[in-house]
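Encode chain A's predicted structure.
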Amino acid sequence: MLSLIIAVVLPYLLILRRSEELAIMRILGVKEVEVKRYVFTENLTLIIIGEVIAIAVISAVTFKSGVYPIWKYLFVIVGYLLASIIGVLASLKNVLYKKPLEMLQVKE
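Encoded structure for chain A:
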């Protein structure tokens, strides 16, 4: 359960930290759809690489013990992937529907 919460919150926070970069891209004329595609594919690539590494580590650790309930691991991996996608989409919605110039203003 904790990993699902982290899977939603972590991408959300990472994209919010990059809101200035995304605002600059939008001011320079990059379409909103292209920004969404860029951020989504970047995060999805990182998530998949992390899951492949996790699968390799789990396989290496559990292979010697002979206990390998693959369905449990697949359930966790698919759940983490879906939760991460939800986090990315929620943060994109939050960041991209603000006006770019408002996002770049310095708040004191």
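The chain has a mean pLDDT of 81.
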